[in-house]
Specification:
Blueprint (H helix, E strand, L loop, with lengths): L3 H17 L3 H10 L25 H16 L8 E5 L8 H20 L2 H14 L2 E9 L3 E7 L4 E5 L5 E11 H8 L6 H8 L6 E10 L14 E7 L9 E8 L4 E5 L12 H4 L1 H22 L3 E2 L26 E2 L8 H17 L2 H11 L5 H39 L18 E5 L2 H25 L11 H12 L9 H39 L6
Antiparallel strand pairs: 1-12, 2-3, 2-9, 4-5, 5-6, 6-7, 7-8, 10-11
Helix pairs in contact: 3-5, 3-10, 3-11, 9-10, 11-12, 12-13
């Protein structure tokens, strides 16, 4: 029986369940009409049961999958680096040891991401984010691959926010088999009921688990070192054990182990809104329209029949079917003539399909594909989808803030604590320094393209004015302009010389120019002397 802080932590789940109750039907609608592969929230169908009975037109599901694939391919692609690290203090980036450390950290992290479950789970994460408009990723340490990632299905978790609007409380409720509980926690930590199940070799019998994570400042459950700012407890729910809820394990975390992102969020709400929820009226109407068109086409091809009396056998309407009737009996005819043109309905369906596709930004990702393959330049891209990228901008910003940023931060924390070390030694210059993430993906580059274009236009205007007012060029700091342009375009920092190398190149160039100038002066002096000598030889006086 739970008591004290342990009971207070567990009882908080009731309040979080109450907060989530108004989202249950929305989530079930999204499963029924958009993502039938997901776990039910209200309905409880058996594994393998038919779940597509509400879907006649797969356009919305296809649009969602393309949206998730677009984020995967153009924001967190596995095929090329999609982020780098930098210091907030720009001067530190001029130190070779700092640049080397950050580049090595990114190289190691991307290698670990490739060998872990990161990319497979990020695709699931994007489907959750675009569909349910809230997504939750579990980031944990893995003995085999250092990092383990798992996208948690919507409806399996409850969340709470801190005063800054960031999720810092997650309660995850999920079924787990006795075998997996023993593997994860050890038999000694399990209650007697689970041990008896294991002794009876019923390894696949399931128990309902609650995993709670919260800030230590909310409740100190006890038994967890104070060094951890976040506390965690695994509970076996009541009804699974005779003595009520049972604490299986208590532990702590240096970083919050979940990354919970929302597509967008209304004031006063904790769960997200976005294309999956906002376009559900269009999605439901599309299914009804498609069903009606199918029914009309079926009636036209196989209409109801008017059968007069006099037929001696059962009516056979199949190919080569033989029907016998008494002499004088009228032939079978359609009960009524099926009339009406469905072309207008088909146009309406096409318009609604296009709206759904645009709601999931399929047009943006198709344009980005043209940019990647070289069929379109960045200025052309901005001309066509600049407004769409503006609309998508807040989503990308929230994604950086609530998803990829926390995932990278948590991953770096886990890797930095490995022994033997997997990351290079931290340079002394970076002690107590904060890092910032620089995103290098095609989506981030496309967003920054407008800023690049604005900067280039400003410089071109200055050079145009410089034809009449040359001194205006003195206002341009070429080195800083080059660095900013490098950052905005996301080009690898290895390709940019550090300031000391730049200074050496300039000194060498100046020295070479001085030598060339000295040679030119000497040649000029020799030429002048030669001309002067010739003039004296001819008796010409010099004034």
């Amino acid at each position: 029986m739970l008591e004290g802080p342990e009971k207070r932590v567990f009882d908080r789940l009731k309040d979080l369940d109450q907060d989530f109750s108004s989202w249950e039907q929305r989530g079930q609608d999204i499963i029924d009409y958009l993502i039938p592969s997901r776990t039910d929230i209200i309905s409880r169908r058996q594994p393998g049961a038919q779940k597509t009975q509400h879907i006649n037109d797969t356009t919305p599901t296809d649009a969602l999958n393309k949206c998730a694939a677009g984020f995967m391919g153009y924001h967190t692609t596995q095929s090329s680096p999609w982020f780098s690290l930098a210091t907030q203090n720009r001067e530190l980036m001029e130190f070779p040891e700092v640049k080397f450390y950050l580049q090595e950290v990114v190289r190691v992290m991307q290698g670990v991401f490739n060998s872990s479950t990161f990319y497979s789970q990020m695709h699931e994460y994007y489907i959750e984010l675009a569909g349910f408009n809230t997504a939750c990723m579990w980031i944990a340490e893995d003995p085999a691959n250092f990092l383990y990632f798992k996208s948690i299905p919507f409806g399996r978790y409850r969340i709470a926010e801190n005063y800054r609007g960031l999720v810092d409380v997650v309660y995850r409720v999920y079924p787990e088999t006795a075998r997996n509980l023993e593997t994860e926690f050890g038999r000694d930590a399990l209650p007697d009921e689970v041990k008896r199940v294991l002794e009876d070799n019923k390894y696949e019998e399931k128990f309902e688990i609650v995993h709670a994570v919260w800030p230590r400042t909310d409740v100190d459950i006890g038994g967890i070192p104070e060094i951890f700012p976040f506390q965690s407890a695994y509970y076996l729910k009541a009804g699974m054990t005779a003595g009520g809820e049972h604490v299986i394990e208590k532990t702590g975390f240096f970083e919050f182990p979940y990354a919970v992102a929302r597509w967008s969020k209304d004031s006063g709400e904790k769960y997200g809104r976005g294309p999956g929820i906002d376009n559900m009226p269009d999605i439901k109407t599309l299914q009804k329209q498609d069903k009606a068109i199918l029914k009309a086409d079926q009636k036209r091809v196989d209409p109801p029949l008017d059968i007069p009396p006099g037929y001696r056998t059962a009516i056979r309407t199949g190919p080569a079917g033989l029907n016998f009737r008494a002499k004088g009996t009228e032939s079978i005819s359609a009960l009524h003539e099926i009339t009406g043109d469905t072309s207008a309905a088909n146009v309406s369906i096409k318009e609604r399909q296009d709206r759904v596709k645009k709601a999931f930004f399929n047009d943006v990702f198709m344009m980005l594909q043209n940019l990647t393959t070289g069929r379109m330049t960045i200025p052309e891209l901005m001309e066509r989808i600049g407004e769409k990228l503006t609309i998508l901008g807040p989503v990308i910003g929230r994604l950086h803030h609530e998803a990829t940023g926390p995932i990278i931060g948590r991953s770096y924390g886990i890797l930095s604590r490995q022994f033997p070390p997997v990351l290079p030694e931290l340079p002394e210059a970076l002690v107590d320094q904060d890092f910032e993430i620089v995103y290098l993906s095609q989506l981030s580059k496309a967003q920054r393209a407008s800023e690049v274009r604005t900067n280039m236009e400003a410089v071109n205007m200055i050079f145009a004015v410089a034809e009449r007012i040359p001194e205006i060029v003195d206002n341009i700091n070429g080195d800083e302009f080059a660095k900013d342009l490098w950052d905005l375009t996301g080009v690898n920092q290895k390709l940019l010389n550090d300031p000391r190398a730049v200074q050496a190149i300039r000194e060498q160039r100046a020295e070479q120019q001085a030598i060339e100038q000295q040679k030119a002066d000497m040649l000029l002096a020799a030429e002048v002397a030669s001309k002067a000598g010739g003039a004296l030889g001819q008796g010409v006086g010099l004034q």
